[in-house]
User: What shape does this take?
Amino acid sequence: MDYIKKEVLFEHSTDNIYSFVNTVIDIIRENVHPEKYEPNSSAVKQVIIELCTNAIKHSNCRQSIFMIETDHLFIKISKADSGLPFSLICSNMVLSFPLTLPYTAEPVIIRKDMLSTLLAAPVSMNELVFKYIEHDEPESYDPQDLLEHYGLLIIAKHTFEFTYQYDENSCTNIFKAVIRI
Assistant: This one.
């Protein structure tokens, strides 16, 4: 199996999700050895579905470009669009990209329940890393923390790395999910 890098256009419609997910899965299956793909097939499917759902719900544009990359260690799935920049309301603060000075590089909790926490850690004014933490013991939480971002939690849970980057020059949003195989 070889390294591939392939772009696939996703037209934002719930009617397109099923066939699009199957198209991307077929590309990955053709290029990743079954012994490496099969244990990760559920993660791949969940990531693609959630990136599509995120695009339809939040981007405010008609289409996204998905970039599929594989090598012997990773499956990388990126979604790029020119819609609204990513924005988070969490912990009584708003993270809106590009971030303005002063911004904190400290991770902020964007979703928490009794089993897990999803953090967003700004890396720069234009980049954010999502971090999933699974709790060993049930933790207390505020039910208000459950309102949004479950899709981001699903992606972060199933990936080795999950990032958001805003390209100011092209006004492009890029979500990148990396799955270790």
About this structure: The first strand starts at residue 4 and ends at 11. The two ends are 13 Å apart (CA to CA). The mean pLDDT is 90. The longest helix spans residues 41-58.
